[in-house]
Amino acid sequence: MKAFMTIGTIDFLLKLEGKYRDIQFYFMTNSENGAAYYENSSKNVFSAGREYEVVIETGKLKKEGFIVMNNIPVQEEEQPAFEYRFKNRKNAVDAMPGFEAFRLLRPVKGNTYVVLTQWHSSKDFDNWKNSEQFKQAHKNQSTKPAAYFPERPFVTAYQMYAEDE
């Protein structure tokens, strides 16, 4: 399955819905910009978007909630090991209260994977970050060789867009 994502002003992105009625878009915002995301299509309708292969899919994305994207650059030779780690994860996050969905997205171009999680609220995500399950899930991360990441990973967080905003 493919996934596509782009950023821009929310007003501009919302116009996509009228232009591409056959696509189920997910719109989100933060203090810096808006983002649009969709899956299950072979066509990229974004002129300046990113394309991904969905490696792992858990849960169903919803039009409301809180999205966290861990953007993780991974060197090409390390990508199989990186994906293996996720495919063999214990799925502790899936059982957390407020968890909605998980996606591991492999970039079609470039080297930055996206680990996308959706939560009912930002508080649910904070509860996950402060949980024993989170510590267990991330306990071996500091032992990775420095060469594992060619650039610094970064996190982006969004609130799903609601019409009344």
TrEMBL record:
Gene Ontology molecular function, alphabetical: monooxygenase activity
Keyword Oxidoreductase (UniProt): yes
Residue ranges of domain ABM in the record: 66-154
UniProt-listed Pfam families: ABM
Record-linked InterPro entries: ABM_dom, Dimeric_a/b-barrel, Heme-degrading_MO
Gene3D superfamilies associated with the record: 3.30.70.100
Alphabetic keyword roster: Monooxygenase, Oxidoreductase
Family matches, as PANTHER family: SIGNAL TRANSDUCTION PROTEIN TRAP (PTHR34474)
Protein name per its UniProtKB record: Antibiotic biosynthesis monooxygenase
Annotated source species: Oceanobacillus zhaokaii
Organismal lineage: Bacteria, Bacillati, Bacillota, Bacilli, Bacillales
